[in-house]
Amino acid sequence: MLSFIHAFSQERNLSGKVYDENNEPMPGASVIIKGTTQGTVTNIDGEFRIVLSSDQTTIVVSYIGYKSKEIEVGTQSQIDVRLELDQETLDEVIVVGYGTQEKSDLTGVVTSVDSKNFNAGAITSPDNLIAGKVAGVQITPSSGEPGGQVSVRIRGGTSITASNEPLFVIDGVPIDNSAHNPGGFSRGRNPLNFLNPDDIENITVLKDASAAAIYGARGANGVIIINTKKGDGSGKITYNGYVSMANLATDHDMLSADAFRNVVTAKQPNKLNLLGNNNTDWYDQILQTGIGHNHYLSFSGGGKNSNFRFSLGHQDIEGIVQKSRTQRTSLSTNFSKSFFDDRLNINANIKAAYTKDKFDANPIGAALAFDPTQKIFDSENNALGGYFEYPISILAPDNPVSLNDQTQDVGDNIRNIGNIQLEYKLPYIEGLSAKANLGYDMTFGERKRFKPNTLRNQATSDSGEVKIENYKRINPLFNFYFNYKRDLPSINSNLDVTAGYEYQDFKSDYPSYRAYGLSTNAFGFYSAFSARNSEAFNTNEENRLISFFGRVNYSLHDKYLLTFTLRRDGSSRFGENNRWGLFPSVAIGWRLIEEDFMSFLQPTFSDLKLRFAYGVTGSQEIGNYLYLSTYEAGQSTAAIQQGNQFINTLRPNGYDANIKWEETNSLNIGLDFALLDGKLGGSLEYYQKNTKDLLFEVGVASGSNLSNRVVTNIGEMQNSGVELALDAFVIDQKDLSWNLGFNASYNKNEIKALDQSNEPDFEGYLAGGIAGGTGNNVQILRVGESVNTFYVYEHIVDPATGNPVSDNVDFNGDGIIDQADMYRDTNGDGGVNSEDRRPYKNANPDVILGLTSSLTYKDFDLNLTLRSNIGNYVYNNIASDNGYYNKLANGEGYINNIHESVLESGYQSAQFFSDYYVENASFLRMDNITLGYRVRQLSNIDLRVYATMQNLFVLTNYTGMDPEVGYTNRNSDAIGGLGIDDKPYPKARTILFGVNLSF
Amino acid sequence: MKTRIIYFSLIFLMSLGACTDLDVEPNDLVTADAVLTDVNAYQSFLAKLYAGFSVSGQQGPAGNADIKGYDEGSYQYLRLYWKLQELSTEEAIVAWADGNLPKINTQEWTDDNEFVAGLFDRLFYQISLANEFLRESTSAKLSSKGFSEGEISAVAQFRAEARFIRALVYWHAIDLYANVPFATEEDALGAEAPSQATRQEVFNYIDSELQAIESQLAEPKSVGYYGRADKGALWALQAKLYLNSEVYTGVSRYTECITACNKIINSSAYQLTANYQNNFQADNHNSPEMIFAATFDGQNTQTYGGTTFIIHASVGGSMSPENYGINSGWGGLRVRRELVNLFDDPSGLTDSRALFFTEGQSLNISDVSSFTDGYACVKFTNITSDGNPGSDAVFTDTDFPIFRLADVYLMYAEAVLRGGAGGDQATALSYINSLRQRAYGNNSGEIALGDMSLDFILDERARELYWEGHRRTDLVRFEKFTTGATWQWKGGVEGGMTTESFRDVYPIPSGQLIANPKLTQNTGY
Q1: CATH number of the domain where residue B502 is located
Q2: Which residues of chain B does A630 touch, with a Cβ-Cβ cutoff of 8 Å?
Q3: What is the DSSP string of A591-656?
Q4: I need a surface site. Which of A193, A789, B159, B331 has the fewest CB within 10 A?
């Protein structure tokens, strides 16, 4: 017990214990002497001790979500208090932008997930904690990499090119959540990895415009507010720890060595001499069992007017591809104190983390394609590290094991977010307070890679390379606002008004160098001194956002609720004429259950609320300076001879001077309900979001701009959908309780207009770049279709075999073997050419389902999360890029492995645009299941042990490795499209054992 | 007191809030007004136009590409131009199955062929850059920036060179794609999709541009002008344009072709280099017959296209890369037997232009993807005329001749044979025999007037100019590209077959038909 009170004369002690509705002790409850600000909070056992002066006889006991209780203690020195749930407000105070609101007063669509409902498992970044938990929120990892990037879509994407990621706000600081993806390296990791999931108290999702409009130009994709745990004065120490083990979940579909030999014998007999005598599963050779462990220690305490919390975490997770690993050491502190009779409150937070990432050399593509009959090592090949390699005089793939073993690629990152929030209740005007928030978000990092000259690809080009990119991001934040909150009993109203200003600047520097032509490998990353050549760069980015915002909440008779918000944002990313945007919203709520005429529902229903909201939000997540005509200097290695000298070049970049915000108008109609004493509660929503001025990097008409692709505003898009969320206490008994959470959402995306759509011949813009050839796209943006719609030929199926017609058959019997034998003439013009490709299915799921079950029986608990996407299609790019016989001999002096789909399709040459590769990838995944046991025998110590399985199973008809394919393409810079399965980092199945301990 | 402190703090905080400055300008990029402030900046901008033929972006060899959506190294201007001009003919074939590249070998391309699209994007990238240069360098603009008269006239010469580059690229455009989008500096940037102009209209435009800038370009072979366009380059382009006029416009202009050839020859600025192979080596910038070249340099002009591509890709099989000044072969390019058979003796002992590598290579190509099927070609190397390797074993020093004197001789002879005035057959024969004398090392290769037929000229063009990016244009002019001739793997069959005549031009890429609804596809596609 850490709180203590100085003794004065004429004082007496009062001690006691606070219980909840189930007669369990309540730690963290506040006990205040009425009429003063003196008080304490209960400890872990629910106990408190307080000193009263002789004239103080009443205490107030309160806890968020419970009805406050005033107790006349008289002269008692020992008292027990039982608090009851505040059913009327359904407990929650929800953090919305720039303030809080009681859940019952909400008019917008806001869902909060509490830490106890988070996903279990070896989770590195906070966004994964709520996968499957919130209706309409789709969380897709880009790969199975530990700490890999994740995409979050709230109610479908509103944009095509600009980021569709929601705004993240951590303890009141909106952060820059763009990943660091330095050029020439594989992609960086999730920028949220710095935040330890164990530090998070709850995650709140603002889904509709009414809720998100307060964030204006950054609200179109929704807002995710993360609040970290705060000191509760309990003096509690907790420890959480686990160890985990991850293995490949699903194996690849390339040919085995034996099958490969048979195929080469049949198809390329003259190349049999290129085969080796081994049976090597290259894919297996680059994998490992990923071991992980996590430790977390926190400590919380406080005094009379202050609270603090301190935590330290360490996580170390290995990926299932050798070399990949992420380590994090995190520290979080929170301190709050009140001054001047509680008029001034100060709350300070610092979260800092050091993450150390190791990257594999991205050997996945090479491991899939490398000849499985070759050996791994060749002890005589000293020049290339003792690995088997093809002669360097030919253009051949690198041994994936050598590539991965010999390349060193690491990233270090220190991120630090801190802020001080001051709240001052102004005198003279009751209910008026001023709040200021001063904060910063700083990241310092480094990505570095060493390639020794014993790598095959170095032997043929740079003969050893060190490449380092540092980065520094500094984002100061300042906001200031007034809040006026007043009950107006004379007119049965409550009023809550907020108005303020915000300034945020995002500045980053990326100095980097590359040194190559190393004369020694001995110094690893520190070999630059031995380099024959080097080059250095320093790039710099900055943007600024300045905003004014206001909100009015008004409620009448606690029945009629009105919210009005307005934000004016100015962004440096746009030209003078398009710089400022205005983002209003209005919402009304009607608590039907309070109406007399609804009283007949009363015994069954405890809540019924109808909501309507309309608002405008924006998106500005595009690159900087796109409106400016800029010039870029060329390097000295890209200079050109003019006479007897080499002149460095100057290049004008493509741009659109009139580029402007994407603007989303959204409408939401919702119904909240609770019945059976709150045992079943939920909400039903209908929404429609119309986005105009869509930004997209389009292939421009040749001759009209300074690049073949330019980011510009091109059209309009609509998302509409329905969401249902249900929470049920199925069983609620002393020894047995079962809680089910279910959510379902349906979203339909449609492109409504594109700028050229008034031209009758305009087909749409190509998108969805694939691996295979170059510049090939398999998706289209077309009016009337969804984004990520595939654009492919209809492959004719041979009824005799049930397989698609192969490319070496004169199927239509016209004497010529051409595309017309394979593909349907969909436009009926008598021939088959690119105009016969047609929109076919799309990569977005129609329906997303999530089910969370928590079962507790005595000291056992069983929790699981099931997640399902229905109606999402995936282009199997691994099959299309490897599943044809010509791939075997796509080069001289070596031979490639090919994909087993060729045994069915029989393709001789690549058929990238065939719908054969577009597959239904609907799935049901057991994301995680946890069995826990609470050890009660230990007094004063709360110990729980548990075991978790992540990704236990996936049910799907998709023939590739995993049906859930991320948005980002790790392997190429092509315009990535959702639903293109191209050599991703494979998904793991993880088992984990852990303990939670507190005392 | 407390209250006053608080209020003071509030006022302080609100004063911070007064900041509404949103002018954030980049530091590592510069705006046009900030950078185009002196002649040197304009020269760097002009250098970008020249570099557009040689490198793929602002970082050598790759890393900051000019055009997006492609594999940068494969989509360098000259590499793409070379593929479409050579792989589609009997002069070359490539083993690689990169996407739809094999369809170029066999003349089976469609309008979604990425190489067809890539060159189209490259051409119009060059044209757009030239247009922007001309918009940014008007004398009115320069005056308003305070440029002196002397500076303005220096930039005026740059303008003429920019117009030459644009004319050259428009010639490539109509030659390959016939009816193309048309934009000049008069069209505002990013405003509207350009309209499609006919081959005739663009031809006329090129013609008028070349006449307009002729007097402003430097004299042929002016000192300090290597790599830049001078009058010699302009006349060579005129000769090309007029020689092919009948293909482009239906009207022959052989007399004008001869006039242009005569200007080059009579300027006496150019002579045949004694050793044929010196035109294709690491120090070929010294060749006295070079009229205009895309320049490369192992240290300063690095790319995976250009001669780096040609030289690496043509080495494989049992060849030793170091013999050609490079560290590795990419095992891709060979010649077809129909080219080899044009030489009396493929060993090179008789006609030194037969630069083939035959050891372990078969003449016949039964498997396109096998490097050893078909003779390898060692015409281009990264070795200097005195036998030393170039400055880098990956990136070659060898420049690529766009126009050289031998081509002018052959154009002259052809134009005379086709009835142009201003020249005569005897002179034509002497030009042809000067090439053959060099090739044979003596006069045993010389021909008589009676041998100098048009068919002979076409074959001689192959023998002299193979792999220099002329073949498709030549075959089209002789009506032998599609219908009139066959060679191995033409049409996708081993023995070769004729193809339909619509393939004399490439299709407008399907992506462009989408991006620009004003475009109409070429007939047949």
Answers
A1: 1.25.40.390
A2: 26, 29-32
A3: -GGGSGGGGGGTTTEEEEEEEEEEEEEEE--S-TTTTS-EEEEPPTTB-EEETTEEEPPEEEPP--
A4: B159
